[in-house]
Write a structure and sequence with these properties.
Shape: rod-shaped
CATH superfamily of one domain: Immunoglobulins
Number of helices: 2
Number of strands: 14
Distance between the termini: 144 Å
Structural class: alpha+beta
CATH class of one domain: Mainly Beta
Strand content: 35-45%
Helix content: 10-25%
Largest sheet: 4 strands, antiparallel
CATH architecture of one domain: Sandwich
Length: 252
């Protein structure tokens, strides 16, 4: 335990009363015992100051940083990933877009697993966290489900998501079934001249009218109409008309 004496007033010893002399002797004995036990109060103060002062200085240096939060570790912002496709069943020969939503300016890696092999595209999200990566479907296998895995990463954090699309064959425009209608009239009964009027859905095709061993043809116009002069068959016989794959009948 550290102790230290108090400053005493300058008084002659001979002037002290007896009780004060006894008190002085008692304090001297106590002071002697204290000097044998350890250093004085002044030395203790120096030792304590030597330990406390560096700690206080370090705390003082750290105080502004702690107060402002600059020295404290802050959790990084979370990152997310969602994706979709512009067309679930794109036609072969077309394009399909992979729409990605994440944090602004995140790095993006998209891997499309086509049947022949993977196609990898890289990009970055815009300031709104959006990006669309386009793939050419080309001659990809129809009906094969192409899975697209998307990885987004930024500031040491990453997230993943996926979507898919399945190419399809383009629709073929089938031609409508061929058809025709025909009417006939006698132009000159004396000579068995007949007029055959034909209408069909096949423009610029040869239309042929036949009856009783006679036959004549004429090309249809842009609207599928034709007038055939069929000379020879007697009135009332059945006339057969063909236009491409279509066949129809009439009589005059």
């Amino acid at each position: 335990m550290c102790t230290a004496g108090r400053p005493q007033a300058s008084v002659s010893v001979s002037e002290w009363p007896a009780w004060q002399m006894e008190e002085r002797v008692r304090r001297q004995k106590i002071s002697g015992l204290a000097s044998q036990r350890g250093p004085g109060r002044g030395a203790c103060r120096l030792a304590v100051a030597a330990v406390i002062t560096p700690a206080l200085a370090l705390a003082a240096l750290n105080a502004p940083a702690l107060a402002s939060g600059a020295g404290m570790a802050r959790p990084a912002a979370s990152i997310h990933c969602t994706t979709s496709v512009t067309s679930r069943y794109p036609a072969r020969g077309s394009r399909v877009g992979i729409v990605i939503k994440t944090v602004p300016l995140a790095h993006i890696k998209a891997s499309a697993h086509f049947k022949p092999g993977d196609r990898i595209e890289r990009s970055r999200a815009n300031s709104a966290g959006r990006q669309t990566i386009w793939y050419r479907v080309g001659d990809a296998t129809p009906g094969f489900r192409v899975v697209v895995d998307v990885l987004v990463y930024d500031a040491g954090k990453s997230a993943s998501c996926s979507t898919w699309f399945a190419p399809r064959r383009p629709h073929r425009h089938r031609r409508p079934a061929a058809w025709c209608t025909a009417t006939a009239s006698v132009y000159n009964a004396q000579y068995n001249w007949n007029n055959v009027y034909v209408h069909s859905n096949q423009p610029y095709r040869d239309a042929t009218a036949s009856a009783d061993g006679y036959s004549w043809s004429y090309e249809t116009n842009s609207s599928g109409y034709a007038e055939i002069y069929l000379n020879g068959p007697p009135p009332g016989v059945q006339i057969t008309v063909t236009v491409g794959r279509a066949t129809c009948y009439t009589s005059d």
